[in-house]
Amino acid sequence: MNSFIYDIPTRVYFGENQLGHLGKELSKYGKRVLMVYGGGSIKSIGLYDKVVAEIKNAGLELFECSGIEPNPRVTSVNRGATICKKEKIDVLLAVGGGSTIDATKFIGAATYYEGDAWDILTRKTRITKSLPIVSILTLSATGSEMDAAGVISNMETKDKIGLMHPALFPRVSFLDPTNTYTVDAYQTACGAADILSHIMEVYFNRNQDLYMLDCVMEGLMKTVIKYTPIALTEPDNYEARANLMWASSWAINGFINGGKRQAWSCHPMEHELSAIYDITHGLGLAILTPRWLEYTLDETTVSKFYQFGVNVFDIDKNAEPMEVAKKSMDLLSDFLFNTLGLQRTFTEIGIDDSNFSIMAEKACGGSVLPGFKPLNQKDIENIFSMCL
Ligand code: NZQ
Ligand code: ZN
To answer: Which residue range or ranges hold the Fe-containing alcohol dehydrogenase-like C-terminal domain (predicted)?
Structure first.
């Protein structure tokens, strides 16, 4: 087992009726609050009014930055940072899904930088610090509410870049499953695919010496497979939404990594798709993941597939490992494309092979993605082709 540091500093208020703690938590950082949110769903679900009431009751001063896009743009980050500098904001409050929280993280960091926030993403400059961030999550998917990462798009350069920094951890996150009752079937399905992918990117690993974490990951995957269909048919089922929400946070907050060291594979490939085609992150992952698994399956990796098939999909453990492996991929595809109803191919969502070469080159950084199976540009192009 490799050595590692465990450090997840986000305080979580989980469940209904926790918003009463918001004013107290924000007040720890000052009086001037910038609320960041997306295209208006928080207003239609009645959350906006509740949040504003809590902020006013606490005697805090409210500023707003709305219109954060899905696949958040660096232009929005710059807009937010300008407000922070001008209004001398003390604390940021992100209310929304991963896009809003991610944008808020870089607004916080860009407030301490005089140039274009894109310089932070491209590593032209380093993050020194960030404004403190509090989040209220409304969509279970990315885990941004409890991790130190964010991903930002630049529509001019057709890039989507992620970055992690300890300063970007939300200090506090409010996770009320009832705030996700209004998430539609498509976003619920995409969120589930994203959570699953975050786990699978770590689970499919060659250092197989963290049995305890493998068991945790299998439990998290089973949670997504059990509860997403319930959330789809009963959007206001508290038990289902609560289990998905907590699984979303723990899938990517660092806990399951333990000492495992291996690059992720599907995420770098998907970010290139989102960068060019502006597709929903979870949908891109759903299409890529079964093909990536198929591409990585061979005699050296089959034991992990066997473990996955037996422990996650309850396939007969007495069957041949290769047979279990293939069946597990079939069951995963059935879950993603039939149960969740997500589109199965790039062709169905209007993506052809014209950008495969450039996307593959960027995804592996012009070299090799050192993942479960190391992937060079040609490998990634092959996987993209399997998705057509
Ligand atoms: O913009 P609003 O009006 O808020 O509507 C959103 C948006 O249209 C809507 N929505 C959110 N909560 C809702 C709701 N609609 C009804 N009721 C609610 N309660 O859903 C749409 C999608 O929202 P978005 O925030 O874009 O979705 P998600 O949470 O999936 O975030 C995706 C972004 O996160 C990045 C992705 O790349 C993508 O840019 N990721 C961030 C990660 C991280 N920080 O660690 C890791 C992930 O792998 C991922 O890359
Ligand atoms: Zn993801």
So the answer is: 188-385
